[in-house]
Specification:
This protein has about 80 residues and is α+β, with helices and mostly antiparallel strands. It has one domain (about 20-75). Helices cover about 50% and strands about 15% of the residues. The protein contains 4 helices and 2 strands. It has a two-stranded parallel sheet with strand order 1-2. Helix 2 links the parallel strand 1 and strand 2. The longest helix is centred in the C-terminal third of the chain and has 15 residues, at about 60-75.
Length: about 80
């Protein structure tokens, strides 16, 4: 079942004051479209795309997922 986006309002996204990083698998097309909307709404939100992965990018491509996430965490500490 596909949900109607956004479940969070544009105002909510724009008001975020904390670091946000969204990682998606490239095979999860509806999620990729949602993340593009989120990025357009708040350019401070960081996004990442894990190639050759689906909804479970951390399982499909664990090494790439972990290294990408670690780089983000290192930047915000």
């Amino acid at each position: 079942m596909t949900f109607d986006y956004p479940a969070v309002t544009m105002k909510d996204l724009q008001s975020l004051k904390t670091s946000v990083f969204i990682l998606n698998g490239s095979h999860d097309v509806h999620e990729v479209e949602s993340v593009a909307y989120i990025k357009k709404t708040n350019p401070d939100i960081e996004i990442g795309l894990i190639p050759n992965a689906g909804h479970t990018a951390n399982i499909d491509e664990p090494e790439l997922f972990n290294s990408t996430l670690q780089k983000f965490l290192d930047r915000i500490r």
